[in-house]
Amino acid sequence: MQPWIEQELRTVRLADERLNSRYRVLLDRLSSKPTLSLPAACNGWAETQAAYRFFDNDRNTPEELLRPHYDATLERIRQYPVVLVPQDTTEFDLTRAREKVGGPLGDERHWGLHDHVALAVTPQRLALGVVHSFTWARDPDDFHKRDQARHKPIEAKESQRWLEGYRRACRVAAECPRTRIVCLSDSEGDIYEHLAAAAAIEGPTAEWVVRACQDRSLAGETGGKLWAQAASGPVLGALQIEVGARPARSHDGSKRRQARQARAATATVQSCRVTLQAPRRPDRKLADAAVNVVLVREVDPPPGETPIEWLLLTSLPADAFPEAGTVIEYYTCRWVVEVFFRVLKGGCTVEDLQLETVERFTNCLALYLIVA
To answer: pTM surpassing 0.90?
Structure first.
């Protein structure tokens, strides 16, 4: 057995010792041969049957299976002064000819599961481990009612996952008091409850950086809109950004899904502090939220290319160019979670698993999260 497995599962406490032993064996097999099917990774039919029984055991849950990995990840986090926690969602397409596992994905012809993950990484982009994973299937009966979601409280929406990911980052901050924890979210996480969450949490909180996608209204005497206020501030400096090539992924006009060429871009950096006006909610009254803003804009893009533009909202200081540069540098590390999903799907081939039920798949996925 590989030496790291004993250390990684040092705190494992499943329902009985036989399950603990089987867990170690399975993690050893899957990590040694991550691209192979479950039967091919196991040593013989008897071991394969034992693996299927392990994933089918109702005493095993993804939370319990990941608990020792969380413990080991916290130990690694405590070794660093700053740890970033990018969070994001991926989907697993489990469409099969003869079975339906999970719920509808983008349409009712494709079925599977969604997983929202928060991954701990250093500013040097070294992955330390998973600190949060929430897997769910959409209810087929609600698939055609998504336009009614705006009338639901945040707790009943899928977008609640961003708030839960940030809360998990805050728990990590409480358990690792000597490490600065910074939670990172892309524009899908631009949800007001997420931006205002820190004020409602008692005890230590994580810092955060969220890429804005909504031109929110501002509170106070100045009023106005977020983007205009950010663009009106002084230019703190300029930086070079390496822009990667990207093929077109949509024909709907979405800026983030259009093709672009690789280039070295020069971008200006501006910053300000604003107070966001709380939006109206049908079930509660929200308080206004003060945030720092960093605006990154490309200067003189090539002909035909859409200029790079990021508007980052953050709890971190951003008054001066070095501080704003740190916010930008941290946000660029968000891409590590995208690489993690690629490893999970391409390196561990989890979408090829044929485990027939959500419970078996999510138990098996817990082990592959550690492997990835």
So the answer is: yes
